[in-house]
Design a protein that fits this description.
alpha/beta, 15 helices, binds adenosine-5'-triphosphate, binds ligand LVM2DEV6, 9-stranded mixed β-sheet, 6-stranded mixed β-sheet, binds ligand LIQMQMZN, 3 domains, globular, UDP-N-acetylmuramoyl-L-alanine:D-glutamate ligase, Udp-n-acetylmuramoylalanyl-d-glutamate--2,6- Diaminopimelate Ligase, Chain: A, domain 1
C-alpha cells in the first residue's frame, strides 16, 4: 500500500495507536516490533477492541481487509508522519540538546500557546516512534508545532528532522549525555549538529544560546539565513540576567524594545538558559512581552525534572527522570547555592556514560563531597566501584538504600534526589 493511499485511511481515522493496552475506538493501530513483543500478534486484539484498521507487516496475520499490509510498520509510520507534515503549511520548531529539551519544549509551548493554537510533544515521546506519533497528532486547527527530538547515536536527529522538517530549531546545549552511543563529546556535537545541518540546508531559523562555547563553535562551520542569539552578554538579540533562585528563578530580560522581569516556577540555575530560549522564540513569533511573561510564569513542572515538593518532613527536589555528568554537576552546584540549614544529596548512578563511567562517577563523588552538605548518599554500582569514601554512604541499589532510610530517616532537610531513570529513585520518595 502506498503512503498516499494509507493517508486516506489516516484522514478518516486520525487517532494512531501502537498499544493494545491503551487502544481507543476508531483508531488506526500500527503493529510495531519491540524488545519484548511483535505487535503483529496483537493486531486481531486491536480490531476486537475497536480499532478501525490494523497496519501490519507480517502477512501471516492478515485475516481480512481490516488488516493493512505494509513492508515495515515502523518505517511506514515514519513515512506517513512525514507525508502528513508535508501537507501542513505551519511552522515546526524542532528541539534537541543534551539537557533541558523537555523543560524548554514545555516553556516554549506555554509561551507560544498564549497566541497560537499549538501542539507540542507529549512528555518525552521524542524518538523514532515518538516523533512520528507527535506529528500525526497535528490536526487542521493547529497553527504551530513544537517537536522534541531525542537521540543517543549519530544520524538519529537527521532521521527525525527528515520526518518533522523543522522550520525553526534550537539545540539547548551540548553536554556529557549519552556519551556511550555518541562516542564522546565531539560525537555529541556531531549528532546534535544534524539539526543545524537540516536548518542550514532548508533556510530555517536557528536560536542559539550564546553562553555555550560548544554551540558557538558549531556555528563557525555553518551559515544560516536567520540566527537569533540569546544569552547573558548585551550583544545578544535577547539578553538575560538571573535575579534570584530562592528556590525559584527570577529573570530580567532585555530586547531592543525594552526590559522586563519574570518570576518562574522553576528551580535550578540551569533553567535560566531554558527560559531565555523560550523568550527568544516568543519574540521571534511576535508575542508581546506580557504574553511571553505569562507563558513563562504559568509553567510549573510536574514531571520529576527538578520538581520541588514539600513533604511532611523535608523539602525535596525530585530530579530522577535522568542524569548524566553535566546535569549532575549543575544540580549539585544548584543545591549548594540554595538556602537551607540541612542539605542532603541522594545521587543515583548515571547511565550510558560509556568508557569514562568510572572517572565521571568519581568526579561527581569529589564534587559532592567538596561541599559541606549534611549528608551525601550514593546509590548504584558505578558509584560504589568508583570510590567508597568514609564521609559518605554508598549503596549498591535503590532497595538497599530504601532499607537504610527506613530506619535512618532524613528530616528537616532540603533533599536533592537525582539519578538515571533506570535507578528508580522515586521509590525513596515515600520515605522523605
Ligand atoms: C515500541 C514501543 O512503543 N514500546 C513501548 C512498549 O514497550 P513494551 O516493552 O511493552 O513492548 P515492546 O516494545 O516489545 O512492544 C512492541 C509493540 O507491542 C505493543 N504491545 C505490547 C504489549 C501488548 O500487550 N500490546 C501491544 O500492543 C507495544 O505498545 C509496542 O508498540 O510499552 C512501554 C510501556 O508503555 C513503552 O515504554 C515502550 O515505549 C518505547 C520505549 C518507545 O520507544 N516509545 C516511544 C513512543 C518514545 O518516544 N518513548 C519515550 C522515550 C524516548 C527516549 O528514551 N529518548 C531518549 C533518546 C532517544 C534514544 C533512542 N535511540 C531510543 O532508543 O529510544 C532520551 O534521552 O530522551 C518515553 O517513553 O518517554
Ligand atoms: N539547560 C540545562 N543544562 C543542564 N542540565 C539541565 C538543563 N535543563 C535541565 N537540566 C537537567 O536535566 C533534567 C531533565 O530535564 P529535561 O527533561 O528538561 O531534559 P531533557 O533533555 O528533555 O531530558 P530527557 O530527554 O531525558 O527528558 C533536569 O531536571 C535538570 O536536572
Ligand atoms: C530515560 C531516557 N530518556 C534517559 O534520559 N536515559 C538516561 C540514560 C538516563 O536515564 O539518565
Amino acid at each position: 500500500m502506498s503512503i498516499p493511499e494509507l493517508y486516506q485511511y489516516y484522514l478518516s481515522f486520525p487517532n494512531i495507536c501502537t498499544d493494545t493496552r491503551k487502544i481507543e475506538r476508531n483508531s488506526l493501530f500500527f503493529a510495531l516490533r519491540g524488545e519484548n513483543f511483535d505487535a503483529n500478534a496483537f493486531a486481531e486484539q486491536a480490531l476486537e477492541k475497536g480499532a478501525a484498521y490494523a497496519v501490519i507487516d507480517n502477512p501471516d496475520f492478515k485475516k481480512s481487509e481490516k488488516y493493512l499490509l505494509v513492508e515495515d510498520s515502523l518505517s511506514t509510520l515514519q513515512q506517513l508522519a512525514r507525508y502528513h507534515r508535508q501537507q501542513l503549511k505551519i511552522p515546526v520548531i524542532g528541539l534537541t540538546g543534551s539537557n533541558g529539551k523537555t523543560t524548554t519544549k514545555e516553556l516554549i509551548n506555554s509561551v507560544l500557546s498564549q497566541k497560537f493554537k499549538t501542539l507540542a510533544t507529549k512528555g518525552n515521546l521524542n524518538n523514532h516512534i515518538g516523533v512520528p506519533l507527535t506529528l500525526l497528532e497535528i490536526g487542521n486547527d493547529v497553527e504551530l508545532a513544537i517537536v522534541e527530538m531525542g537521540a543517543n547515536h549519530q544520524k538519529e536527529i537527521e532521521l527525525l528532522c527528515s520526518i518533522c522538517e523543522p522550520t525553526h530549531g534550537l539545540i539547548t546545549n551540548i553536554g556529557k549525555a549519552h556519551l556511550e552511543g555518541f562516542g564522546g563529546i565531539e560525537g555529541v556535537k556531531q549528532g546534535k549538529g544534524e539539526l543545524y545541518d537540516f536548518l542550514q540546508a532548508h533556510q530555517g531559523t536557528v536560536f542559539v544560546n550564546d553562553d555555550s562555547p560548544a554551540l558557538n563553535e558549531m556555528l563557525k562551520t555553518r551559515n544560516f539565513v536567520k540566527l537569533v542569539k540569546y544569552g547573558t552578554d548585551a550583544s545578544n538579540q535577547v539578553m538575560g540576567e538571573l535575579l534570584s533562585n530562592e528556590p525559584y528563578l527570577k529573570i530580567r530580560w532585555t530586547y531592543p524594545r525594552g526590559t522586563f522581569e519574570v518570576q518562574s516556577q522553576l528551580t535550578g540555575i540551569y533553567n535560566f538558559e531554558n527560559i531565555l530560549g523560550a523568550i527568544a522564540i516568543g519574540l521571534d513569533f511576535d508575542l508581546s512581552p506580557a504574553q511571553i511573561n505569562a507563558g513563562i510564569s504559568n509553567y510549573a513542572p510536574k514531571n520529576n525534572r527538578s520538581q520541588i515538593s514539600k513533604t511532611e518532613k523535608n523539602t525535596v527536589i525530585g530530579d530522577y527522570y535522568n542524569a548524566n555528568p553535566s546535569s549532575m554537576v549543575l544540580a549539585i552546584d544548584n543545591i549548594a547555592q540554595l538556602k537551607a540549614t540541612k542539605k542532603v544529596l541522594i545521587l543515583g548512578d548515571m547511565f550510558e556514560v560509556g568508557e569514562s563511567t568510572a572517572q565521571e562517577h568519581l568526579n561527581v563523588i569529589r564534587k559532592a563531597l567538596a561541599y559541606p552538605f549534611t549528608q551525601v548518599i550514593f546509590i548504584g554500582k558505578h558509584f560504589k566501584e568508583a570510590s567508597s569514601q568514609v564521609n559518605a554512604l554508598f549503596f549498591t541499589d535503590t532497595d538497599e538504600a530504601y532499607n537504610h532510610l527506613k530506619h535512618q530517616r532524613i528530616e528537616d532537610s532540603l533533599v536533592l534526589v537525582k539519578g538515571s531513570r533506570g535507578m528508580r529513585l522515586e521509590k525513596l520518595m515515600e520515605l522523605l
